[in-house]
């Protein structure tokens, strides 16, 4: 497993992240206190007989509606202005809304509370694009996944805590709920005052106030990059699944598990805890980079445990509904709890890399507008979840387990569709699984590989796994130049082709392939990509680094770019190396070996020479092959 220099939890102490984290946590917490108090008021106190369902659905719609109406405007504003100040203004607005909300709670005015819920949704719609676009400005590339993991964990913990707090506060005099929402809004504003400045990405932007035309334009920004747009769709799909589960848990508890409200709270807690744990696990497994190979693993887990939950069936009907302790003692309760935790965990593995892809692959000048498009689609998918649940459980008469099975089968279909359109996800998944199945990878100084612009990585060549290991470590996509024989190895060929690997052969063997390879290398560098070559031209036969060929000099002379020397250690003697016989032809002697990948300082184009790079790579490798 990759070794981490710092825990992501250390970000909670960092002035450039901690104030933002607690600001967004307080906002999510307050939203859910207010929403839950209002929902319970509508359900048990404010509504006339027969009007409860209408008012509760109206409330849900009023909170989501602003995301459709104002996200496009919010994205423009977030790109045009300094984000720290914007967040503070949004938090001031929240204080005003909550003061009005406190008065409405004290007076018991249902109409006022519904109007204020719409304003809370509006405030959240304006906060969303700033929330995710500010992180890449304050975090290093190695911290993006950890930052997203913390935000996702914090959001779901805040949702759970706010929901529970709302349920407790509704049992007390209205003054307590009024005080809680105002105090939480003030706490969020105080935290926001310490958020560092985040300069405007597009200060010259002319804002389009036509929300309808701008909404279409905003969705167009997300569509510019296929991987980004499919990531946005993937995020929205997760919110669809999450909304289906969370919305149905109360009725599932009552009608299928024959249990009390306390059991519903426990189920919601298990789901939220699972997402928080999965988000943090994602950071650990990612090795401080955007590891989108975890997304298919997340999809697989969501599908497997979704099917298992649907097949769990109902608990025996008791004389009286199961209390919390009665539920925990009932046969079949533990697998249901585990299913919800594991659905949450795999959901965390699924959603965190997708958010990181949207943040890192969107152009900075309109990143907030891409995130606004994400919010619009999230809201649309959540409405779709409500409609699907209403139709399937109403006119169609399906049971809740049947609904769970239906959305799981839909999840499988969505996964197949996305991974067929973008095989890069499947390729990265295979790379991650293969490298982590055979090796424990320790890497050093990955930050020395330029975060943008063209660069050439050179490395010693020890085994058939070298490219997979380097590709799994690097935070940017890498175009590998490799011998055509290795390129054609089954299974690995899919990975290499999908990763845009450049096959090459000796000039005397096939001049066309040789020249085509150099042409492709030049094109990739001109496009600002990272290219990796193994200057020895073949796998080592004795564990030592062979002479570097002059091809690297030809490459840099044609397309000048910095060259980064790197070294692999610990692969000599593995099943994929030539030690004690031809690679892949002998019995494996060890699994899960510890290997090292070390990166040195970049060499300027003017200083590049095959001999000089050989010396640098040899020094990085040392005596350990």
UniProtKB/TrEMBL annotation:
Q: How does it sit in the membrane?
A: Multi-pass membrane protein
Q: Which GO terms describe its molecular function?
A: acyltransferase activity; transmembrane transporter activity
What SUPFAM superfamilies would the database entry show? Glycerol-3-phosphate (1)-acyltransferase, MFS general substrate transporter
Against Gene3D superfamilies, the record matches this protein to: MFS general substrate transporter like domains
Report the locations given in the UniProt record: Cell membrane
- TM region(s), chain numbering: 20-42, 54-75, 95-128, 149-169, 175-192, 227-251, 263-282, 294-316, 336-358, 370-394, 400-422
Which part of the chain is the Phospholipid/glycerol acyltransferase domain? 455-571
Q: Which UniProt keywords apply?
A: Acyltransferase, Cell membrane, Membrane, Transferase, Transmembrane, Transmembrane helix, Transport
Listed Pfam families:
Acyltransferase, MFS_1
Q: Does the keyword Transmembrane apply?
A: yes
**InterPro entries per record:** MFS, MFS_trans_sf, Plipid/glycerol_acylTrfase
On whether Membrane is a keyword of this UniProt record, the answer is: yes
What PANTHER family does this protein map onto? MACROLIDE-EFFLUX PROTEIN (PTHR43266), MAJOR FACILITATOR SUPERFAMILY (MFS) PROFILE DOMAIN-CONTAINING PROTEIN (PTHR43266:SF2)
- UniProt name for this protein: Phospholipid/glycerol acyltransferase
Q: Which organism is it from?
A: Desulfoluna butyratoxydans
